Amino acid sequence: MAGAGSGLTPREREVAALIADGASNKEAGRRLGISPRTVELHRAHIMEKLGARNAADLVRIVLTHASRC
Questions:
Q1: How far is it, in rounded angstroms, from Cα 37 to Cα 40?
Q2: Which residue of 2, 28, 34, 52 has the smallest Cβ count within 10 Å?
Q3: Is the pTM of this model over 0.90?
Q4: Fold of 10-68
Q5: Which residue from 52, 50, 57, 43 is spatially nearest to 6, judged by alpha carbons?
Q6: pLDDT digits (tens, 9 = 90+) for 41-53
Q7: What was the pLDDT predicted at 26?
Q8: Which residues contact 44 (CB under 8 A, 6 or more apart)?
């Protein structure tokens, strides 16, 4: 797998950062000016692109990548 940011859209990278920071879908949506459902869709796309099996796996992948940058 390439880096955690590879292949993600700018919005997906924003959502991933907020998720890794512990934001709920509702809070991430509020911060980004989008609906919680849209955040859920972005999260699903991010998980698919990064090969994450669940939310904890996603956070691990994003934080691991962030610590390398």
A1: 5
A2: 2
A3: no
A4: Arc Repressor Mutant, subunit A (1.10.10)
A5: 50
A6: 999 999 999 999 9
A7: 97
A8: none
